[in-house]
Design brief:
Blueprint lengths: L2 H30 L9 E3 L5 E4 H6 L3 E2 L2 E4 L6 E4 L2
Antiparallel strand pairs: 1-2, 3-4, 4-5
Protein backbone atom coordinates (compact mmCIF):
# COMPACT_ATOMS: atom_id res chain seq x y z
CA UNK A 1 0.00 0.00 0.00
CA UNK A 2 1.32 3.40 -0.87
CA UNK A 3 1.11 6.40 1.45
CA UNK A 4 -1.93 7.92 -0.29
CA UNK A 5 -3.94 4.68 0.05
CA UNK A 6 -3.13 4.49 3.77
CA UNK A 7 -4.25 8.12 4.28
CA UNK A 8 -7.50 7.41 2.40
CA UNK A 9 -8.26 4.34 4.51
CA UNK A 10 -7.67 6.28 7.76
CA UNK A 11 -10.05 9.02 6.56
CA UNK A 12 -12.63 6.38 5.62
CA UNK A 13 -12.45 4.81 9.09
CA UNK A 14 -12.90 8.24 10.75
CA UNK A 15 -15.95 9.00 8.57
CA UNK A 16 -17.53 5.60 9.33
CA UNK A 17 -17.01 6.07 13.09
CA UNK A 18 -18.59 9.56 12.97
CA UNK A 19 -21.60 8.29 10.99
CA UNK A 20 -22.10 5.44 13.49
CA UNK A 21 -21.97 7.89 16.42
CA UNK A 22 -24.61 10.13 14.80
CA UNK A 23 -26.85 7.11 14.10
CA UNK A 24 -26.47 5.91 17.70
CA UNK A 25 -27.59 9.28 19.09
CA UNK A 26 -30.55 9.46 16.68
CA UNK A 27 -31.72 5.98 17.69
CA UNK A 28 -31.22 6.82 21.38
CA UNK A 29 -33.39 9.94 21.12
CA UNK A 30 -36.08 8.09 19.16
CA UNK A 31 -36.25 5.32 21.79
CA UNK A 32 -36.12 7.53 24.85
CA UNK A 33 -38.32 10.31 23.50
CA UNK A 34 -35.62 12.97 23.27
CA UNK A 35 -36.65 14.22 26.70
CA UNK A 36 -33.83 16.79 26.73
CA UNK A 37 -35.82 18.82 24.20
CA UNK A 38 -39.17 18.59 25.98
CA UNK A 39 -40.51 21.32 28.20
CA UNK A 40 -43.31 21.34 30.76
CA UNK A 41 -44.37 18.27 32.69
CA UNK A 42 -42.06 15.31 32.43
CA UNK A 43 -42.74 11.62 32.66
CA UNK A 44 -40.26 10.16 35.12
CA UNK A 45 -39.32 6.75 36.39
CA UNK A 46 -39.16 5.93 40.10
CA UNK A 47 -35.57 7.22 40.34
CA UNK A 48 -36.64 10.59 38.89
CA UNK A 49 -34.89 10.09 35.56
CA UNK A 50 -36.66 12.10 32.86
CA UNK A 51 -37.73 9.87 29.97
CA UNK A 52 -40.23 12.12 28.17
CA UNK A 53 -43.19 14.43 28.61
CA UNK A 54 -46.56 13.30 29.97
CA UNK A 55 -48.27 14.49 26.76
CA UNK A 56 -45.83 12.43 24.70
CA UNK A 57 -46.52 9.41 26.91
CA UNK A 58 -50.29 9.85 26.38
CA UNK A 59 -49.84 10.16 22.59
CA UNK A 60 -47.91 6.89 22.52
CA UNK A 61 -50.68 4.93 24.22
CA UNK A 62 -49.08 5.36 27.64
CA UNK A 63 -45.58 4.26 26.67
CA UNK A 64 -42.31 5.93 25.73
CA UNK A 65 -39.61 3.51 24.66
CA UNK A 66 -39.19 0.96 27.48
CA UNK A 67 -41.44 2.97 29.86
CA UNK A 68 -45.16 3.08 30.53
CA UNK A 69 -47.29 5.74 32.21
CA UNK A 70 -48.55 5.00 35.70
CA UNK A 71 -51.84 6.86 36.30
CA UNK A 72 -51.80 6.15 40.05
CA UNK A 73 -48.85 8.46 40.71
CA UNK A 74 -49.01 12.26 40.91
CA UNK A 75 -47.52 13.76 38.85
CA UNK A 76 -47.83 10.96 36.31
CA UNK A 77 -44.69 8.83 36.17
CA UNK A 78 -43.28 6.42 33.66
CA UNK A 79 -42.35 3.04 35.11
CA UNK A 80 -40.30 0.34 33.35
CA UNK A 81 -42.30 -1.99 31.09
CA UNK A 82 -42.26 -5.54 32.43
Amino acid sequence: MNKKAVEMSIQTVIVIVLVLLVLFFLVYFLIYGGSIFNSGLTCEDKKGTCVGSVAECDQNGGTIGPWKCDDKTQPKCCIPLK
